[in-house]
Structures are given as C-alpha cells and as structure tokens.
From TrEMBL:
<dbReference type="InterPro" id="IPR050382">
    <property type="entry name" value="MFS_Na/Anion_cotransporter"/>
</dbReference>
<feature type="transmembrane region" description="Helical">
    <location>
        <begin position="102"/>
        <end position="119"/>
    </location>
</feature>
<dbReference type="InterPro" id="IPR036259">
    <property type="entry name" value="MFS_trans_sf"/>
</dbReference>
<feature type="transmembrane region" description="Helical">
    <location>
        <begin position="131"/>
        <end position="150"/>
    </location>
</feature>
<dbReference type="Pfam" id="PF07690">
    <property type="entry name" value="MFS_1"/>
</dbReference>
<dbReference type="GO" id="GO:0015291">
    <property type="term" value="F:secondary active transmembrane transporter activity"/>
</dbReference>
<dbReference type="GO" id="GO:0015867">
    <property type="term" value="P:ATP transport"/>
</dbReference>
<feature type="transmembrane region" description="Helical">
    <location>
        <begin position="389"/>
        <end position="411"/>
    </location>
</feature>
<dbReference type="InterPro" id="IPR020846">
    <property type="entry name" value="MFS_dom"/>
</dbReference>
<feature type="transmembrane region" description="Helical">
    <location>
        <begin position="41"/>
        <end position="62"/>
    </location>
</feature>
<dbReference type="InterPro" id="IPR011701">
    <property type="entry name" value="MFS"/>
</dbReference>
<keyword id="KW-1133">Transmembrane helix</keyword>
<protein>
    <recommendedName>
        <fullName>Major facilitator superfamily (MFS) profile domain-containing protein</fullName>
    </recommendedName>
</protein>
<keyword id="KW-0472">Membrane</keyword>
<feature type="transmembrane region" description="Helical">
    <location>
        <begin position="297"/>
        <end position="318"/>
    </location>
</feature>
<feature type="transmembrane region" description="Helical">
    <location>
        <begin position="74"/>
        <end position="95"/>
    </location>
</feature>
<feature type="domain" description="Major facilitator superfamily (MFS) profile">
    <location>
        <begin position="37"/>
        <end position="447"/>
    </location>
</feature>
Length: 449
C-alpha cells in the first residue's frame, strides 16, 4: 500500500459513505446508555463519599473511646488526603490509556474492603499511639484507593458525553457526593446512636462491594456488547478502505505548564477544596461543641440536602447558558464566582450569628455554594484539554487534595491551641477570595492543548 493512500482518522469522524470511524474509542453514549451510566456513577460517587465522610461523622465518638485530642483527631481526618494526593495523576493517566470503566471497579473493590475492615483495625492494638498510627495508615490507604475515582470518571465523561451536555452530566454525577454525605449524616448518625460507630462502616463497605460487582458484571458487559458490534463494523471499514486509526498523542505537559489558564485551574481548585474539606471534616465537631443538645442527624443532613439541588441546578444553568450563546469562559467564571464569594460570605457571616438556626443556615448555604464548583473548575479540564481530561484532572485534583491534609490538620491544631472557630472560618474565607481573584483573572474555557 502506498503512503499517500493511507488516511488518518479521528474518533467519530464520518466518511463519505456516512460510516462512523473510531467509535469504540470516541462514540458518545446514547440517551439510554447515558442514563444508565449517570445513575450508576451517581450511586458509586455517593458510596465513595459515604466511605470518606463516615469518619468525620463518627470522629467524636471514636476519639472519646480511644482518648484522642483534637490534634490527633485532625491527624486521623487528614490522613485520608495524604493518600488521596498520591494517586490522582496516576488515576487520570491510566483512565486516559485503558479507560475509566476499567479503573473504577478495581479501585472500588479496594476502598470498599478497607472501609469494611476499619473498625477491626481500630481495635488491633490497645496502645494509644499504636492504634492511632494504625488508624492514620488505614485512612491513607483509603485515600490512595479513592484517588482513582474522580480522574477515572472525568476521563470517561470527556470521551462519552458531548461538550454541550458535560456540565449537567458531571454535576448530576458529582451531586452523588452530597447525597452520600447526606445519607451518612442521617442513616449513619442513627446507626451510630443506636448500635455504635462500627456498624456504619460495615454497612458502607458492603454496599461499595455490591456497586463494584454491578459495574463489573452487569453494566460494563452491556457496554462491551454494543461496542463489539461497532468495532466489527469499524474493522471491516478500515480494511476495505485501507484506513488507519489515529494514535492517541501523549499529554503535552510542557505546553500546559506554560499556560496561565492551567495554573489558575490548579490554584482555584486548591482554594475551593480547602474550604470544602475543612467544612466536610470539622462541621460535625463544630456543632457538637457549640450546640451540644442539637440532633446530629439534623446538622449532618441539612447542609448536604440543600447542596444537591445547587449542584444539579448549576450544571443545568451552565449548559443552558452555553446553549444560549454565552462563552464557556464566561460560564465557568460565573459558576466559580458564586462558589468562591458565596462560600466566603457565609463563612464570614457565621462568626457574627449566635443562634443554632442561624449558624446552621450559614453553614448550609456555604456548602451549597461549593456545589457550583462542579460546573466551573471541576469540568474545566474537559474544556482546555479534551483529549487529556483524565490526566489533567488527576493533576488538578492532586493539587486540590493538598489542603485536605494540610488545611484539615492545621484547623485541628488551631482549635486545640486557640479554641476559636472564627479564626478557622476567617482564614478559609480569605483563601477563597484569593482563589476567585486568580481564576477570574487567568481562567479560560477555550481549548489550550
């Protein structure tokens, strides 16, 4: 075959005969397929966050039983993010190379087993420091395994969902994080109150294993059957027309690291996650200390209950604005403005209100504003690097996980030394304002690489 007779094609490229090439790599989900995958990934993300947040919900009971102070409790809570940072980039790279649908079930099997055995790990040693170290290491291992989830999910969505539908799809799936946190706050709190803190861990671990088995043996085989038919048609077309498929290029990291838009993505994600992780980890303790008679199932539920509609609604609004002709850049910056300034405002305000109802409202609205992040920076890697969204998101989320162990630990130490929640909320709000300045100045929704 002569070189000039060979044609290079891209996924979803259409020939003169109307055939679609490269569909196995780039074919978008049909409406029915998208609904199935959205539902499954929503449930998976909810279970993931339930496993992640059950320790903050139970930390007061666990720390009292084990004799941990706030600095030691902060070490346990922040240990998760040490591990979470390690695998973000690897998760994105593997997902872009072998597929997020392969990476997600393997990771889910591992983190489900870890969370299931957590209570037994706590009781492995009666020594104060030994039990603390074991608990911290188990949290690190949980973070390592969960670090594959979001990069894998992002890579999958970038390949299987069109640009006009990504904000809503990603927001719906990501709202599973709030739903999972809500369930833990409600059901987990009740299980802990009546049966002790170990039972919620067993329940969540078992449910995670069930979700993994569904993905591995039901959902993925269904997709494989539909792709097999497309792949066979593709192979015949490639052979008959002597066409070769395009080879996926490597990630142009050098180019990315010279772009201010890429750095604004990293910094903005870091700043938003700093607020989110501090609220996620310390909010139950805040209400336990300041309003000891308050029902835990209320303050562990209300903030996440109002965040679900804000997350899904922001996704719909972002896609609607893009469809109406607003630039992607404008839409992403609008979503982040609500996220950064809204969260900062309510964190400042909580320092000036005294009643339980007012504090609960401020906390709920601060967390609800965080939901707009999923239609802004969280989906932005798919805008600036659509072919490498998993890898870029992995690196971005690695930067975003850093405040998980630094910010959460420092918050615990500050509380131990100063006994001041206002100091924690004030510095968190200032970090948000800084993130807003950086992202609105240098961020973009245009393709960079």
């Amino acid at each position: 075959m002569r070189e000039q007779d060979t044609v290079s094609i891209k996924p979803n490229e259409t020939t003169s005969d109307g055939d679609i090439l490269g569909a196995s790599a780039g074919k978008h989900w049909t409406k029915k397929e998208k609904l199935k995958w959205m539902t499954s990934l929503f449930i998976g993300t909810a279970t993931l966050y339930a496993a992640r947040t059950i320790m903050p919900v139970c930390i007061v009971s666990v720390s009292q039983e084990m004799g941990w102070d706030k600095t030691e409790s902060g070490s346990v809570l922040s240990g998760f993010f040490w591990g979470y940072t390690m695998t973000q980039f690897l998760g994105g790279y593997l997902s872009d190379r072998i597929g997020g649908d392969i990476v997600l079930p393997i990771a889910a099997c591992l983190w489900s087993l870890i969370i299931f055995w957590t209570p037994q790990l706590v009781y492995m040693s009666t020594g104060h420091h030994t039990s603390l170290y074991i608990m911290v290491m188990s949290r690190v291992a949980l973070g390592v395994c969960q670090g594959f989830h979001y990069p894998g999910m992002t890579s999958l969505i970038s390949r299987k969902v069109s640009e006009q539908e990504r904000s809503f799809t990603y927001s719906v799936i990501s709202s599973g994080s709030m739903f999972g946190t809500l369930l833990v706050g409600c059901i987990g709190s009740l299980l802990m109150e009546f049966y002790g803190w170990p039972l919620p861990f067993y329940f969540i671990g078992l449910f995670g294993l069930i979700w993994m088995l569904y993905m591995r043996y039901i959902l993925i085989p269904q997709q494989a059957k539909s792709l097999l038919i497309v792949s066979l048609n593709e192979a015949q077309l490639l052979e008959s027309k002597q066409i070769k498929a395009e080879v996926k290029p490597s990630v142009p990291w050098v180019t990315l690291f010279t772009k201010s838009a890429f750095w604004s993505l990293l910094i903005g994600h870091y700043c938003e996650n700093n607020a989110f992780y501090i609220l996620l980890s310390w909010m139950p303790t805040y209400f336990h200390e300041n309003f000891p008679t308050a029902k835990s199932w209320i303050f562990n539920v209300v903030p996440w209950l109002v965040t679900i509609p804000s997350t899904i609604g922001s996704g719909w609004l972002a896609d609607h604005m893009i469809a109406k002709g607003y630039s992607v850049t404008f839409v992403r910056k609008t979503m982040q403005t609500v996220t950064f300034l809204g969260t900062a405002f309510f964190l400042f305000l909580i320092s000036y209100v005294k009643s339980y109802e007012a504090c609960l409202a401020c906390m709920a609205l601060a967390v609800a504003c965080c939901g707009f992040h999923h239609s802004g920076i969280s989906v932005n890697p798919q805008d600036i690097a659509p072919k490498h969204a998993g890898s870029v998101f992995g690196l971005m989320n690695m930067a975003g996980a850093i405040p998980g162990f630094i910010g959460v630990y420092i918050a615990g130490h500050v509380l131990e030394v100063t006994k001041s929640w206002n100091a924690v909320f004030g510095q968190t709000a200032l970090v948000n304002v800084f993130g807003w300045i950086v992202y609105t100045t240098f961020g973009t929704g245009k393709k960079v690489v």
